[in-house]
Structures are given as structure tokens and as C-alpha cells.
Amino acid sequence: MNQQSDIYLFEAGIVSEDMQPYCGVDEAGRGPLAGPVYAAAVILGPDTKILGLNDSKKISPKKRDLLYEEILKSAAAVSVGVSDVSEIEELNILAATFLAMNRAIEGLNPKAKISLIDGNQGKGILTKHICITGGDALCASIAAASIVAKVQRDRYMIKLAEKYPMYGFEKHKGYGTAAHYAAIKEHGACKHHRMSFLKNLH
């Protein structure tokens, strides 16, 4: 059995008929030094099959963009939630991630009866949910959510790079690369940097 069959069968084995519609939820941007954290919630629908779905980190940017367009076209519902840098700083990154996820779930139309959450921590999710470790590679709806969150956040960071070209956001998307650290040391941080992530930077 190939991975594409598995990704739908695994999900079908978790969700019963009375849980329809359900959504997959994933985030993008927990680890970067700069920029918001994004979360997406996606309801694929029982008959929706999108070839090539996988964890967004395992897919090339070009393929991610193609799958993103297919998800928007084929999914029953797609919603995105965002927590900005001020919320990350005020709450902490985990709480801000849950806030973005809750916003994404709340924005769905139709609403989901239950959410499949990537990871093993769901204590901050306000609605009924199931946590699945490695879900972005195991469940089709979570994989779809990971792609939507990743593509939208990457596009935001590319746009941000137009205002702050000195940091190279379009290349590393805010992550802590050597070039990014060097740019911060040279130019200082901007308002889109997470100062709590930079406290050990000298």
C-alpha cells in the first residue's frame, strides 16, 4: 500500500461517521525568530482525494504552491488563524500557537464537529479534538492544513522582506539561519522580531 492510500485510510480509521465534518489542523512558524505564527484548519470532505498530500516540510516550495491551490479549490472549508508577534511575546509561543489554531477552527464554515491536531499537545484547544503525533505525514486533512499554513506564512514573510530587505526574510522566512543572526547583529532587531527568542543574542 502506498503512502497516498495510507494517508486517507489512517484518517478514516480514526474518525467515525458521526464525527463528520471534521477538520485537520496544523501550524507554521513556531520556531522562527521573526514573524507571526500561522495555523490552518481544513475540512476535506469524505470524497475529496488530493494526490501528493504530505507534511509541508517534505514538499518542495513549487509543489507546495500547486497543492495549496488544489486544496483551496477542492476542500469543503479552509480557514487560517494568525497570532502576531505581540501576542507571541505576551502569551508565549505555545499559547500563541493554540490561539492561532482556535481562530482557524472558529473560522470554518461549515463548522467541524471535531479537530485532528498535529502533535501531542492539545490542552489549549477549546473545541473537541484528537491529537496525532506526526499527523502532518499520517492524515490527509492535517497534511492539507500544514500546506495551507506554510504557504500563507511564507508569502507573508516574502512580502515583509520588501519593507525590511536587510534581513533576508524572503530566504529564511524568519528562521534562525546564520545569515539572519548576522543581519540582526548588523542592523538590530525590528518590530517583527520576537525579542524573547533573541534574549541570548549578543
Describe this protein's structure.
With 202 residues, the chain is of the alpha/beta class. The protein has a single domain, classed as Nucleotidyltransferase, domain 5. Helix content is 44%, strand content 15%. The protein has a 5-stranded mixed β-sheet. Helix 2 (61-74) packs across helix 6 (140-163) and helix 3 crosses helix 4. The longest helix has 24 residues, at 140-163. It is globular. It starts with a helix and ends in a 15-residue tail after the last helix.
CATH architecture classification = 2-Layer Sandwich
Mean pLDDT: 93
CATH class designation? Alpha Beta
Largest sheet: 5 strands, mixed
Please tally the β strands and state the result. 5
* Relevant CATH superfamily: Ribonuclease H-like superfamily/Ribonuclease H
The assembly state of the depicted protein chains is single chain
- How much of the sequence is in beta strands? 5-15%
**Helix/strand class:** alpha/beta
Looking at CATH, which topology would you report? Nucleotidyltransferase, domain 5
**Helix content percent band:** 40-55%
How many independent structural domains? 1
| Number of continuous helical runs | 8
List low-pLDDT spans.
none
Integer-rounded radius of gyration:
17 Å
- Tell me the overall shape: globular
Which features characterize this protein?
202 residues, alpha/beta, Nucleotidyltransferase, domain 5, 5-stranded mixed sheet, 8 helices, 5 strands
